[in-house]
Task: structure prediction
Amino acid sequence: MSASIDQLTDWVRRFAAAVHEHRDELTRLDSAIGDADHGSNLDRGMTAVVAALDAEPQPSAAALFKKVGMTLVSTVGGASGPLYGTFFLRVATASGEVTELDGPAFAKALRAGLEGVVARGKAEAGDKTMFDALAPAVDALDAALADGDPLGESLRAAATAAASGRDATIPLVARKGRASYLGERSAGHQDPGATSVTLLVVAAAEALA
Ligand code: ADP
Ligand code: MG
Ligand code: MG
Result:
């Protein structure tokens, strides 16, 4: 099964809706180990993305994800704006000017997005960041597709892996971002970025089912 441009757009819209719904939770998580703005940051950015897509539907995967990335870079501040922005800009470049992506092409695009996050933020596994949910999700997607599972089922495996990675951030001591300023006191709290990235992967599993 391939993901059509309508399904890819639906992914972005579902992510925006999930961020809006979980805005207070994301902000509460960020108030424990950051500056209490992750929910408001991302909600502002994704609300602007939805407005841009309402004004002008995008004709290709590259155009869609470039619009998302550029909008996030210009509307979301802090760490997560450039990180999510880079993620979507790399997904755009890897996707190309196409109107559908098959499973391997979608997985390749997500892998490129993950590599963009790493290039920008230098996070490694266990640093207690969005990487800790995104990397296992991309690995699980590759593994499921390699097993011959269809894209929707593979994305459900990816969403499960993201949620496990998110939960596993709780005991970690942060080594990147604002939470790292707290040192050992960052342990015992779930990372906000790993939480929002899980919403992103769950939205993909729903939209591309
Ligand atoms: P800020 O910390 O600037 O207020 P946000 O609150 O919007 O930005 O985002 C915080 C999230 O950003 C963290 O929970 C973490 O997941 C993610 N993050 C911070 N620094 C990095 C990094 N270097 N690499 C990957 N993710 C990071
Ligand atoms: Mg913050
Ligand atoms: Mg901030």
User: Anything to note?
Assistant: The mean pLDDT is 98. The pocket of magnesium ion (ligand 3) is lined by residues 35, 37, 78 (CB under 6 Å).
